[in-house]
């Protein structure tokens, strides 16, 4: 019976970590404004990525400090690899940001930071930073079970 509170604490901790990663991903993706939202709609695209850095477009125009958002399927993104066009490439992970160099995305070339969030709401949230609900639930459960275990 002593293991039940420990199990709940572990679940709460994992929930908190997941929420924290989501918030970090959102914050690292750059500022958010109404005209920069990614309108995913009901097209089956279940997440989005955000990019902040330098874009070289098809006309070879260099755009620095650009924030770009795009809706994608999570399954497609998890297998996408980054890095140079040659050699070892590290696969992209959920709730993560990676520095990319000369990433070819037809017709643009990206150099900067690309973030893959776990929910399109993190790409389209208001400009106010908010604590995600998994993080709040996790902290609440950890606090609750800590108090119970101390009695």
Write structural notes for this entry.
The chain is an alpha+beta fold and 151 residues long. It has one domain. The protein has four helices and six strands. The strands form two sheets. The protein has a four-stranded antiparallel β-sheet with strand order 2-1-6-5. It has a two-stranded antiparallel ribbon with strand order 3-4. Strand 1 and strand 2 (62-72) form a beta hairpin. Helix 1 (3-28) packs antiparallel against helix 4. 23% of the residues are buried.
Brief account:
Helix content is 36%, strand content 29%. The protein has four helices and six strands; from the N terminus they run αββαββββαα.
**Shape, principal axes of CA atoms:** elongated
What's the helix count?
A: 4
**How many distinct beta strands?**
6
> In which order are the strands of the major sheet placed?
2-1-6-5
In percent, how helical is the residue content? 25-40%
Query: Could you state the order of secondary-structure elements as H and E?
Result: HEEHEEEEHH
Main pleated-sheet profile: 4 strands, antiparallel
How big a fraction of the residues is strand?
25-35%
Classification by helices and strands: alpha+beta
Mean pLDDT across all residues, rounded? 64
Distance between the termini: 15 Å
Signal peptide: 1-19
Protein name: Protein sleepless
Keywords: Membrane, Signal, Transmembrane, Transmembrane helix
Transmembrane segments: 131-150
